[in-house]
Amino acid sequence: MDMSDQLMRNRAKAIRLIGIANELLAMARELEIGQPIAGDPFATDSLEGAPGRFREVASKDHPIWVELARQAYEDRRRRSKIFQADALFGEPAWDILLDLFIAAKERRRVSVTSACIGSAVPSTTALRWITILEKHQLLQREADPGDARRVYVRLSARGYAAMLEYFAASSRSVVLLDDPSPHFAAAR
Q: Per its UniProt record, what SUPFAM superfamilies does this chain match (predicted)?
């Protein structure tokens, strides 16, 4: 195994651990003060505008979903690298949604520029997809109050709930393993 490959893997693991640590710190703060962080657009009670099925899924959020999102995002980058053809696997809207979902779970902000880079397509294409996602009310733009030149994007409550619903549906078996039911208990 090449030393640079091992360093890259270690760095990727360190970045994931930092993200998990940040999420744990945010959850600890919420527990300490007894309520979600003020202005947190991803708190379950902020999903008032979302349809009932989204609110129901969001109330059952699971920590493994962010890991599945990270893995999906990394898998998409790996395909392009292995096949040496970025154009074969382009799906910028999904890349943007994955990136913003991961950022939401890590409680970090994503600039429009970063979202464009994360989509792995030219910035004009990414900006077009950001506009489309915004029209579908899956993400929102926010001006940076400290720097008028910078604009952030984040999942809307509807977009966040849709991502939760997607990962809830696609990870049913993984999450079920985490929740021993009477059926599994009887099999033991």
A: Winged helix' DNA-binding domain
Q: What is the DSSP letter of 152?
A: E
Give the residue numbers spanning the domain of 83: 3-178
Q: What is the DSSP letter of 37?
A: P
Residues 6+ away with beta carbon under 8 Å from 14? none
For residues 111 and 142, give the distance between their C-alpha atoms in angstroms, rounded to a whole number: 9
Has this prediction a pTM greater than 0.70?
A: no
Residue 132 identity (one-letter amino acid): I
Any idea what the CATH number is for the domain that residue 122 is in?
1.10.10.10
- Among 72, 117, 124, residue whose Cα is nearest residue 98: 72
Q: Which of 33, 151, 157, 60 is nearest to 101 (CA)?
A: 157
- How far separated are the first and last CA of the chain, in Å rounded? 40
Distance CA 133, CA 95 (A): 12
Q: How many helices (H) and strands (E) does the chain have?
A: 9, 3
- Residue 135 and residue 32 in contact, taking contact as beta carbons nearer than 8 Å: no
pLDDT tens per residue, the chain (188 residues)?
Answer: 677 778 777 877 776 676 566 566 556 655 655 544 433 444 544 445 555 555 555 556 677 777 878 887 787 778 778 888 766 677 899 999 999 999 998 888 999 999 998 888 889 999 999 999 999 999 999 998 888 889 999 999 999 989 888 888 776 655 554 555 444 444 44
